[in-house]
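Issue 218. Parser rejects a valid record. Input:
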Amino acid sequence: MEHLIEVGTGLRAAEAVRLASQGASLLWCDDFAAARRLLAAMRKRLPDRTADFYRYRQSRRNRARVLGKLLVEVGADLRIDLPGAPDTRAAIHAAGGRPGLVPLTTVLGMLSAHQWRLTGVPVEALGARIHPHYGVFPPTRQEYVSLVARAPLARVRTAFDIGTGTGVLAAVLARRGVPAVVATDVSPAAVTCARANLARLGLDRVRVLAADLFPPGRADLLVCNPPWLPGAAHSPLDAAVFDPGSRMLSGFLAGAAAHLTDGGEAWLVLSDLAELLGLRTRADLTAHFTAAGLTVADRLDIRPAPRTGTDPLSRARSREVVSLWRLRR
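Output the parser choked on:
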């Protein structure tokens, strides 16, 4: 490991930021609550105020790197032996964590994710809760769920949910009466999470497969809610928001025609955030449709709840529209 310094309550935020920015790792050896206060103070000293989205992303990445230098020791029993530390055993075990020196930001993320997993996220379209696992994007924003819940659905015998995540859209389709639903995801954590959620909802007839995009065969309905922004993902949760090179979007569209039955539809759920941020144009998107041999049968739109914030992403979200594109061969 790079230069490791044992630190405690005598360390000021400004000095912590300076040392971490220079590459030093800071091992916290004092009260756990004080470590959280130091982390919050460090975050305030690392602002991401910029009008440019690329610089905003760079500053966020740098902030994550610096904050990740504040470490705590996780013991062999997955406890943190510091005064005031919570019982971390279940959360770290559920997240697949290991003993060793771990960034405090990671531990807090595991604790937060475990709470989500225990309590679940209420999903109005299901009248039930979805329980996200660590590293799987929680359905806290539900515009995309609402669109899938209300889009016209007729004579659909089979459906594929591509990139299922928590399994929420597969559950909505099954609850709407689709007799056979196959959900896929490339992430092992997502596959495990989706299977657990669907079993909890009593929807064992939905099959969840580990696959990169499509399962074998054809379906009357293909549903995909890909990451909405082209760009590199720097964390597991980033992968639910950023799609490097628009790989998933392009792959879904390119493979849709070959996996649709005659008269079937592909539902693409996508925000216009990329357009608002200048990362993609509407013409680029519709050109993808044409190249894939798809035509637009209809489009359903929904506006998310108003967002506040001064960063480029928050400003774009204040004007955002989420759309469900109904595509046919």
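Fixed in the parser; the record now loads. The mean pLDDT is 91.
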